[in-house]
Amino acid sequence: MKIGIISDTHGYINPKVFSLFEGVELILHAGDIGTIDIVTSLEALAPLKAIHGNIDTFPLSTRYPQVLGLEIHGVGICLIHQFISIKNSIIQQEVAQLPSKKLDVVICGHSHDAKLQRMDEVLVFNPGSAGKPRFSLRPAVGMLTISENGWYTPEIIYLDEK
Known about the structure:
Layout: E1 2-6, H1 16-20, E2 26-29, H2 36-43, E3 48-50, H3 60-63, E4 67-72, E5 75-80, H4 89-97, E6 105-107, E7 115-119, E8 122-126, E9 140-146, E10 152-158
Parallel strand pairs: 1-2, 2-3, 5-6, 6-8
Antiparallel strand pairs: 1-9, 4-5, 7-8, 9-10
């Protein structure tokens, strides 16, 4: 399964995202969506699961949760906007609801800084910001490919590359 990972759009999506996400089977948005128009645009590409971020107000803040756990082909995933620790109680509560009760990947946003790092056997995946560039950081999105046997491959795609 090919999953488009996006965060921190703040009401604007870099146009390159639409071709990059063509053919994905699911899109995960890690918050700071900005406007309902962003949701509509992404849902035209693939089913969308999202959380709200610190800038998201009504109706986004009521339509989407603060944190979301899901399991795909046995891979435990938790979306949270502002990542602090994998031991965070809100993350642990979501993981406890998953069929396998295990956490493999945390997808987060907030910092706008695209990053892949391991913490205690868990991949922390921040796709960066797909909105207008801020803080002198490169705009980016992510791709997460999960095979049926549970192997997964993360990728960061910078939107300013030719």
